[in-house]
Design goal:
By secondary structure, the chain is of the alpha/beta class. It is 33% helix and 20% strand. The chain contains twelve helices and 20 strands. It has helices at 16-23, 76-90, 108-121, 133-142, 155-176, 185-199, 206-215, 249-254, 287-295, 314-324, 363-368, 394-407, and strands at 3-8, 29-32, 41-45, 48-52, 65-68, 73-74, 97-100, 104-105, 203-204, 220-223, 263-269, 272-274, 308-310, 312-313, 328-332, 342-351, 354-356, 370-377, 411-415, 423-425. The strands form five sheets. Strands 9-7-5-2-10-1-11-15-19-20 form a ten-stranded mixed beta sheet, sandwiched between helices. Strand 16 (342-351) and strand 17 (354-356) form a beta hairpin. Helix 3 crosses helix 4, helix 3 packs parallel to helix 5 and helix 5 (155-176) packs across helix 6 (185-199). The structure holds inosinic acid. Inosinic acid binds at residues 12-13, 38-40, 126-129, 131, 133-134, 225-226, 230, 239, 241-242, 275-276.
């Protein structure tokens, strides 16, 4: 039985979509279990480009079921737009999509609230994707204002709850921001009742479905969104997302026991990127950083923001690999480094004059961390045609070996370009 997880080990955008896409043919079910439409990846399928935010990429594969599990926060409008696009271009999904009735719903007031909060934080803004993710998860944790997908099918209770919630949100947001335009609860009710009706054929108990699938020996692939360093509990708080985006989130987000997972693949870029605020010890503010941004086309899929770029940080990745119990690493975008004379890998931090390989728990400590670099020769050669390890120059192999040794897990996949074929399986 194969139950595989694909987890980002950095601050997101590790090109997990390509790995999920490569592994999907050998699985029956692909599951998203945390986050919402803050995630975004571009997938090439049968010559077409799809932008996926909420739906698991498995939805594109006709043999595969796609599950939007309990731990997700779902903006129904965004989900239906994504679904409509897929149906229009590749045909109906019928019974291949299942959406958890326990997942929480993102409402317009979540986006409004986030905009007000981020504006007030000014220089300390988290730099969120403005999709109402954090504010929806907050209402889930707070309980009083949380609405789950299953609640959309109890219209009388829903109408009254929306009136209470919207009155509360309008009062607070008007007090905080004089420009805030109050929202109309009944208009939201009408809009979301329409979405509920359209989603109904797909809504059900995904936990029961997945547990039954396990009993039947089905092959399941868990598709992590964002990266481990953005995990609400284990990441660089408060500059994180609001879900457990490390491997720690699989169990609570899907209901599938952790011991069922047979393979944990950690995905890393050959360098580091970050979008939004928060410390980033190996960030490059020079022409090398700009070179990586240009060659790697490092601009956000969801927001279009330029990503911050820097050298590979083995301290951070060793931490996240251990946290998620990674047994294999996929290194992405190795080709982006091909034109550089020398490459640096951060193998330790120096914090207040003390050298450490431990990733600090607090952002104030991480902000003080000075990277201690190991310098390696570059390869200055096009590697995009490499298909096996021996096709890579010795310098590239040595770069990979150093990463593997410092992070503490074997590298089994190396990506040297966006296409499926541009992959070295080890
Ligand atoms: P939120 O998830 O929109 O609340 O944003 C919180 C932080 O996570 C911000 O720094 C975002 O840029 C970052 N973030 C959220 N989703 C992604 C993603 O899919 N890739 C990379 N960064 C992300």
């Amino acid at each position: 039985m194969s139950v595989t997880s694909v987890i980002g080990l950095q601050w997101g955008d590790e090109a997990k979509g390509k790995i999920v896409d490569l592994l999907t043919p050998e699985h029956d079910i692909v599951v998203r279990y945390q986050g919402g439409n803050n995630a975004g990846h571009t997938v090439q399928f049968r010559g077409e480009t799809y932008k996926m935010s909420l739906l698991p990429t498995g939805i594109l594969h006709p043999h595969c079921k796609a599950v939007v599990a309990t731990g997700m926060v779902v903006n129904p409008k965004a989900l239906l737009e994504e679904l409509d696009d897929i149906v229009r271009r590749s045909g109906p999904v019928d019974n291949r999509l299942l959406i958890s009735n326990r997942a929480h719903v993102v409402f317009p007031y979540h986006m409004e609230e986030e905009a007000v909060l981020e504006k007030r934080r000014q220089d300390e803004a988290i730099g969120t994707t403005m999709r109402g993710i954090g504010t929806c998860y907050r209402d889930k944790a707070g309980r009083t204002h949380g609405i789950r997908i299953g609640d959309l099918y109890y219209p009388e209770t829903l109408r009254q709850r929306l009136r209470d919630i919207v009155t509360y949100k309008n009062t607070i947001l008007q007090a905080l921001d004089p420009d805030f335009q109050p929202l109309d609860a009944d208009a939201i009710f009408d809009e979301y009742s329409g979405y509920a009706e359209r989603m109904q054929p797909y809504v059900g108990d995904t936990t029961a479905f997945l547990l039954d699938a396990l009993d039947q020996g089905k092959r399941i692939l868990f598709e992590g969104a964002q990266g481990s360093l953005l995990d609400i509990d284990h990441g660089t708080f408060p500059y994180v997302t609001s879900s457990n985006s490390s491997g720690c989130g699989i169990h609570n987000g899907s209901g599938v026991p952790e011991r069922a997972i047979t393979r944990m693949i950690g995905v890393i870029k050959a360098y580091t990127t970050r979008v939004g605020g928060g410390p980033f010890p190996t960030e490059l503010h020079d022409e090398i950083g700009q070179h990586i941004r240009d060659v790697g086309r490092e601009y956000g899929t969801v927001t279009g923001r330029p990503r911050r770029c820097g050298w590979f940080d083995a301290v951070a990745c060793r931490y996240s690999a251990r946290l998620s119990g990674i047994d294999a690493i996929a290194v992405m975008l190795l080709d982006v480094l091909s034109q550089l004379d020398e490459l640096c890998i951060c193998e330790a931090y120096e914090i207040d004059g003390r050298r450490t390989t431990d990733f600090p728990a607090h952002v104030h400590e991480l902000a003080k961390a000075k990277p201690v670099y190991r310098t390696l020769p570059g390869w200055k050669r096009d590697i995009s045609h490499a298909r096996k390890l021996d096709d890579l120059p010795a310098e590239a192999r040595s770069y990979l070996e150093t990463i593997s040794q410092l992070v503490g897990a074997p590298i089994t996949i190396v990506s040297v370009g966006p296409d499926r074929e541009q992959t070295v399986m080890i």
